[in-house]
Write a structure and sequence with these properties.
Number of helices: 19
Order of helices and strands: HHHHHHHHHHHHHEEEHHHHHH
Helix content: 55-70%
Number of strands: 3
Radius of gyration: 28 Å
CATH superfamily of the largest domain: Intergrase catalytic core
CATH architecture of the largest domain: Orthogonal Bundle
Distance between the termini: 97 Å
């Protein structure tokens, strides 16, 4: 693989005779498979060679290389006097060294990071238990980790020390960060205490000590866009580029089918049935549902997949426009939608731009006379009560049931 990037036989032999010559060649093959540009790969080879040379000069065993080594390498680059040719910027060389370290760990040439050992034992056991017994996804567990880790840091890892008063005070202090943070903390601690009681490490009565954070269902109005604003957002995405056409397909999935950002990120090529014109989605509720593939949406997806999607083995539909061609995460999709909103000049009435399109889709269905139960099925709500909030924006229906305000009686 290296001979494809260097013509000099002496140069190739020097690279292959280095302490990590074989690993460097496999690393280069991985970059080539990820469709990195030839010029980029050549720069990475120089950076890896520089990093390995610096490690050897310091007498550090390869098995001991870690993140600290990469940081020290970055400091070395500021005043490099080792005679290595600096073909790229210091920041790029550090980035490449970090990528190479990750490769060495994945190929078991360097021990894996010990971050997991820093996680409290109780918290690790809780995450395993939630995954095995309740099938909780990793994203939900990430939301639970922080309050539980703070609790263990404050009161220690001995559940015997937990008492109702300290637990209640811990949750109530969380309210200083907002009602949402307090509710998430209360939910996480209830699940954590249920795990401890199931393991026989604390009394089940402690679960009842977690206070309920007041929240009135349907108290707020759903945030949504008018149909003309949704069309403005879609029009703003008509950028004649592979990324622009990809982003337009993403917007159509969010606005025409009411998908979540996570649904779009998880959508796979195998989930699209072109012959029968439907796509299959399975979101956080784990309810699989087939949704119709309209002509507009089908044309956009087909054009992106045929002409703009990079040639990669990734199973997901939406991938990065530049190497490495990895699948887009739900956070990346949210960022993409947020940028398009700003380009369209739309002032968002709420924070989540991608979810705002989902609300707008549901509101539009309701105004067209679609029943709440049907909307709940399309949105994959577990209960129609979750969908009832959209009834508050059906002004026409509300006018029919509104009672006249009684006239004030004269004294």
């Amino acid at each position: 693989m290296l001979q494809e990037y260097f013509d000099s036989s002496k140069r190739l032999q020097t690279l292959r005779d280095s302490p990590l010559g074989a690993a460097t060649e496999r690393f280069v093959k991985e970059l080539a498979d990820a469709r990195y540009a030839r010029r980029t790969i050549r720069g990475y080879i120089w950076s890896v060679e520089h990093f390995v040379h610096w490690v050897n000069r310091r007498g550090v065993p390869i098995s001991s290389v870690n993140e600290v080594s990469v940081l020290h390498f970055g400091q070395h680059l500021r005043h490099c006097r080792c005679g290595r040719r600096r073909r790229s910027h210091a920041v790029e060389q550090v980035h490449c060294a970090r990528m190479f370290l990750d490769f060495l760990r994945r190929t078991n040439l360097v021990p894996a990071a010990t971050v997991e050992s820093e996680v409290p034992v109780l918290l690790r056991g809780f995450c395993r238990w939630m995954g095995q017994q309740r099938g909780t996804c990793s994203r939900t567990l990430e939301n639970y980790r922080l309050p539980i880790a703070d609790l263990l840091k404050l009161h220690g890892e001995n559940p015997v020390r937990f008492d109702a008063r300290s637990l209640r005070q811990f949750v109530l202090l969380r309210r200083q960060r907002g009602e949402g943070a307090a509710r998430n903390c209360a939910t996480a601690l209830r699940a954590f205490l249920q795990f401890l009681s199931a393991e026989g490490r604390c009394s089940r009565d402690l679960v009842a000590a977690i206070p309920t954070i007041a929240h009135w269902r349907l108290a707020a109005l759903p945030r949504y866009l008018q149909p003309e604003d949704v069309e403005r957002v879609i029009t703003a995405c008509n950028v004649p580029s592979p990324a622009g056409r990809r982003n337009r397909s993403i917007l159509l999935l969010l606005s025409r089918l009411g998908l979540r950002a996570g649904d779009v990120a998880q959508l796979r090529l195998a989930d699209i049935n072109w012959q029968d014109a439907w796509i299959q989605v399975c979101g956080k509720s784990r309810r699989q549902l087939r949704l119709p593939l309209s002509q507009e949406l089908g044309d956009a997806l087909a054009a992106y997949i045929r002409f703009d999607r990079p040639d990669t083995a990734v199973a997901e539909v939406f991938v990065r426009a530049d190497a490495p061609f990895r699948a887009l995460s739900h956070n990346t999709i949210s960022v993409i939608v947020d940028r398009i909103f700003r380009r369209a000049g739309i002032i968002r009435p709420s924070r989540g731009a991608a979810h705002l399109l989902r609300h707008s889709f549901a509101t539009s269905l309701l105004r067209q006379g679609v029943a709440l139960q049907d909307i709940a099925d399309v949105l994959r709500h577990r209960s129609v009560t979750t969908t009832e909030i959209y009834a508050k924006v059906d002004v026409t229906a509300l006018q029919q049931i509104a009672q006249p305000w009684p006239e004030a009686s004269s004294c």
